[in-house]
Design brief:
Elements (H helix, E strand, L loop, with lengths): L7 E9 L7 E12 L7 E11 L4 E11 L2 H4 L11 E10 L2
Antiparallel strand pairs: 1-2, 2-3, 3-4, 4-5
Length: about 100
Amino acid sequence: MSRWAGTGQSFYFQFGYYYKKLNIMPYLSYQYSSFDGLSENPSALNVGLNYCILDHHAKLTVEYMGIFNNGIESGFNPVTNEALDFEQFRLQLHTFL
């Protein structure tokens, strides 16, 4: 099971806005879930900024991603058996040939 599927409820929010004069698009997405099979409620957060180069033929993305309370994706603490959090920063370059 991942944070995207399961028996229970999920709330997902996504927002982004493109500033044409600056060629940037900040964005945010958040998911909170309450699944029957998990003792803790997992959540995920993504915050980033896209910089568009040559219109939409290339873009540079800087992003923070965090997954919280989901031991299936991030592992468990061997002493307490609590779900660990997983966080990372991403830097990506996308090109269209």
